[in-house]
Amino acid sequence: MHKPFITAHTGALGTPSNSLESIQAALACPGVDCIEVDIRFLPCGTPALGHDRVNESSVKLSEVLALLQGNSCMINLDMKEFTHLAELAKFVATQGFAQRAFFTGLRENQLPAPGLPYYLNSTDCATAHKLSAIGVNIHHSKCSKRLLRRARELGLLVSVWTVDKPRHMRKMRRLGVDNITTRHPDILAKVE
Questions:
Q1: What pLDDT shows up at residue 112?
Q2: CB-based contacts of 99: which residues, under 8 Å, 6+ apart?
Q3: How far apart are CA 105 and CA 5, in angstroms?
Q4: What is the dihedral of CA 86, 122, 38, 183, to 10 degrees?
Q5: Is the separation of the CB atoms in 149 and 156 below 8 Å?
Q6: Contact indicator for 34, 179 with CB cutoff of 8 Å
Q7: 3-class DSSP string for the chain
Q8: Which tens digit of pLDDT belongs to each residue from 13-51?
Q9: Which of 4, 29, 50, 130 is most buried by a 10 A CB count?
Q10: Are 87 and 77 in contact (CB under 8 A)?
Q11: Measured between alpha carbons, how far is residue 27 from residues 22, 68, 73, 91, 100 in Å?
């Protein structure tokens, strides 16, 4: 059975979403290849963690990247707003994470910043290929053999979210998806 990349959803393992505690728990969990954080911007343009809003007390992306120094864990920047994508890509690169970071949350009308890979949030593999995405990022319920076959024909990866039940985890592994985002990476790492 295909072993997918395991991404710890923000708030995984019973931790508060978009918190340093969430990052630390994911980094300590065996089998986690990547962590996901929700990104918004403060009025000054500073990237901070938050799904619906951010403020000065929100965790800053720079704090997360500092925690990731010294290990090989990737970071999924799940974009919740799109005003500063080019600046964000440059910031990530200057911090030494250009090879370890990627965007999700982007749709056709939010063009990504150059130089940072991204998954298009869409089941439309042809559009993802045309827009130079590395893959598609979809809810697991929309994943099918047909979609996987089309993605493979176009050289695209398939990432699914948020897969929290073991039966769904097994199904996604059988289908052969490339990345599974879950709040339960500890369970996913043991699912066969």
A1: 61
A2: none
A3: 18
A4: -150
A5: no
A6: yes
A7: CCCCEEEECCCHHHCCCCCHHHHHHHHHCCCCCEEEEEEEECCCCCEEECCCCCCCCCCEHHHHHHHHCCCCCEEEEEECCCCCHHHHHHHHHHCCCCCCEEEEEECCCCCCCCCCCEEECCCCHHHHHHCCCCEEEEEHHHCCHHHHHHHHHCCCEEEEECCCCHHHHHHHHHHCCCEEEECCHHHHCCCC
A8: 999 999 999 999 999 999 999 999 999 999 999 999 999
A9: 4
A10: no
A11: 9, 8, 8, 22, 14
Torsion over CA: 166, 170, 172, 178 (sign): positive
Q: Tell me the C-alpha distance between 29 and 96, whole Å.
A: 23
Q: How far is Cα 102 from Cα 73, in angstroms, rounded to an integer?
A: 12
Given the structure tokens 């827009």, which residue do they identify?
131
Using alpha carbons, select from 146, 41, 147 the residue that is nearest to residue 135: 147
Q: What is the pLDDT of residues 149-174, one digit of tens each?
A: 999 999 999 999 999 999 999 999 99
* Residue type at position 42: L
pTM above 0.90, yes or no: yes
Pairing of strands 47-49, 34-41: antiparallel
